[in-house]
Write a structure and sequence with these properties.
By secondary structure, this protein is α/β, with parallel strands linked by helices. It is built from 12 helices and 16 strands. The protein has 2 domains: 136 residues, Alpha-Beta Complex (Aspartate Aminotransferase, domain 1); 257 residues, 3-Layer(aba) Sandwich (Aspartate Aminotransferase, domain 2), CATH 3.40.640. Helix 2 packs antiparallel against helix 9 and helix 6 runs parallel beside helix 7. GO terms for molecular function: pyridoxal phosphate binding; transaminase activity.
């Protein structure tokens, strides 16, 4: 039996849910299935028909208001006026590819590289995170002369041929590359009896040794530093450092996938990897850098990049176009100008404190963990045994949806609520979210 995708199928609409829908929603789902094909997925048993957004809020076709606690793509908030204005202004002037000179791509590159460690001093641009990670894998292979890539058990890094081959979260219907090796995620909730840094470094070394035994040369380790698809696993600051040392000691590079933990989201640092005091060889980003406008980036050490760029020309037709760069500039200016890193830290800490009151109240809340505005709420049927409760998690997500709060689940068991709102999420939104969680848990655990 084909295993479902943990990120695509866990909280998704299925055909058997259609009978319970109102006529309008059912008609839309049928048109979608007919026109878009079977690969697409909708959230929720009762899909949401959204028509408008502003900041951290969304409205459906009936005018109902929702609190968005999931969408990091609109990183600084839906329809942010700074992005709208910047894109509109540039659209009125020019939009073309990067084989002509233009100031925006240069100005942005200088600004974004200034936020990174000085060793990372080169920038390249694409349209999606998948493309950025695809290129990163090609560079890792050029640098190392090897092909082997290590990722975690439920990692998701993209949908291209190369990146889907290192994305086990897509499910067994999408085969992994024969040169991909998986390590167990650094789950401090279930690995609380070991030094997580030592344990994870040893897991990396085991997979490098396995590659060597099978005649595969190690190229690199690709990871999102908060291990979001593995269940939101921030861990203690610095625990990742020993694993990166093992990677370098074995001739590979560390690719930090910052599509989700980057751009001030973790609060403690601007970049997720910086929580661990490490310098990646490559950093990749995705659409959150442009608040949803198709733009992504790859930032690298020049010596690592040279192994690829000195021999292979690279051209991404509209990667880094002036309109996308205008959006990225606006996002960065808002993050810095409005001090959203500190905002994320402060609001995230208070939100975690409030969520821990639910942990005290309900035995089914096994763990609350996170960094800044990236939080995991793990649900269990037995707190002592830490038994995952996927059914409760999915029922709670549906209850939240009907109470006007949108989120979803993550992790190998599908039992971790992934709370990752736009950075415009405010202190006053905490009561709405925690209140909805309280009502849902109260009803579902009677």
């Amino acid at each position: 039996m084909k295993m479902r995708s943990t990120i695509m199928d866990t909280n998704s609409f299925r055909a058997e849910d259609a009978a319970a829908l109102d006529a309008t929603t059912r008609e839309l789902t049928e048109r979608r299935a007919h026109n878009l094909g079977a690969s697409y997925r909708l959230f929720y048993r009762d899909p949401v028909h959204l028509v408008r957004g502003k900041g951290q809020y969304l409205w459906d076709a009936e005018g109902k208001k929702y609190l968005d606690v999931y969408n990091n793509v609109a990183s600084i908030g839906h329809c942010h006026p700074a992005v709208v204005d910047a894109v509109h202004e540039q659209m009125l002037q020019l939009n073309t590819h990067t084989r002509y000179l233009h100031e925006r791509i240069l100005d942005y590159s200088e600004a974004i590289l200034a936020t990174l460690p000085p060793e990372i001093d080169r920038a390249m641009y694409m349209c999606t995170g998948s493309e950025a990670n695809d290129l990163a894998i090609r560079i890792a292979r050029a640098w190392s002369g090897g092909t082997g890539i290590i990722v975690t058990q439920e990692a998701y890094h993209g949908t291209s041929d190369l990146t889907s081959g290192v994305s086990p979260a897509l499910g067994s219907g999408q085969p992994l590359s024969s040169t991909t090796r998986l390590v167990n995620a650094p789950d401090h909730y279930r690995k609380d009896d070991v030094d997580l840094g030592d344990w994870f470094a040893a897991e990396i070394q085991k997979q490098i040794d396995d590659m060597q035994m099978h005649g595969i040369k190690f190229a690199g380790f690709l990871a999102d530093s908060i291990f979001s698809s593995d269940g939101v696993l921030p861990g203690d600051r610095g625990f990742l450092k020993k694993a990166v040392e093992v990677v370098h000691r074995n001739g590979g590079i560390f690719i930090a996938d910052e599509v989700q933990p980057g751009f001030a989201r973790t609060g403690e640092t601007f970049w997720g990897f910086a929580r661990h005091g490490v310098v990646p060889d490559i950093v990749t980003t995705g659409k959150p850098m442009g608040n949803g406008i198709p733009v992504s980036g790859l930032f690298a050490r020049k010596d690592v990049l040279a192994a690829f760029s000195d021999t292979i020309p690279y051209f991404n037709t509209f990667g880094g176009n002036p309109v996308s760069m205008a959006a990225a500039q606006a996002v960065l200016k808002v993050i810095v100008g409005e001090n959203l890193q500190k905002h994320s830290l402060d609001v995230g800490r208070q939100l975690q404190d409030e969520l821990k009151t639910l942990q005290d109240k309900y035995d089914v809340v096994g763990d609350v963990r996170g960094a800044g505005l990236f939080i995991g709420l793990e649900l269990v049927s037995d707190r002592r045994l830490k038994t995952p409760d996927k059914v409760l998690a999915l029922d709670l997500v549906e209850a939240l949806r009907h109470d006007g709060v949108l989120t979803s689940v993550a992790g190998p068991y599908g039992n971790v609520l992934k709370l990752r709102p736009p950075l415009s999420f405010q202190f006053e939104d905490i009561d709405w979210l925690v209140g909805a969680l309280d009502r849902g848990l109260s009803t579902l655990t009677r």
